[in-house]
Design goal:
Blueprint (H helix, E strand, L loop, with lengths): L16 H10 L1 E5 L2 E8 L7 E6 L8 H24 L4 E8 L7 H24 L1
Parallel strand pairs: 3-4
Antiparallel strand pairs: 1-2, 2-4
């Protein structure tokens, strides 16, 4: 049986302003409403294979409490499902996961959306390998 690492340590978190700007400028994106994944394959080696950040627009959720709740749900579902991406891809990537919905999601909805967007990402990079 394969052992999964269900942690989300500080070094895996996307915090660098420079990296985030580069991600928005050069990154590719996938959508599975209400989620959007912006990703960028990194050429230079990083200390971890994936750096991930989550965001919820202030425009859709004025209340910081609600925004933070959604970000916690996004981070938790990513943490529990990141092994899918780690085990099925090669290379270093930076991710930014955005929640673009207008309604407060439940954990089950977030998990379903996270699985869908990660699967879409894996399909996309598998197709890129074939080309």
């Amino acid at each position: 049986m394969e052992k999964h690492n269900f942690t989300f340590p500080r070094k895996e978190k996307l915090k660098s302003k420079k990296l985030i700007e580069q991600l928005f400028k050069e990154g590719k994106h996938l959508s599975s409403f209400p989620y959007k994944l912006i990703y960028l394959k990194m050429d230079e080696p990083m200390e971890v294979r994936f750096k991930t950040g989550v965001a919820v627009p202030k425009k859709n959720f004025k209340s910081a409490v609600k925004r933070n709740r959604i970000k916690r749900l996004l981070r938790e579902t990513y943490r529990l499902n990141k092994h899918l991406v780690f085990n099925n891809s090669e290379g270093n990537f930076t991710f930014l996961i955005l929640y673009l919905g207008k309604d407060m999601p439940t954990y089950k909805q977030v998990e379903k959306g996270m699985l869908a967007i990660l699967q879409k990402f894996l399909n996309k990079i598998d197709n890129a390998k074939v080309d």
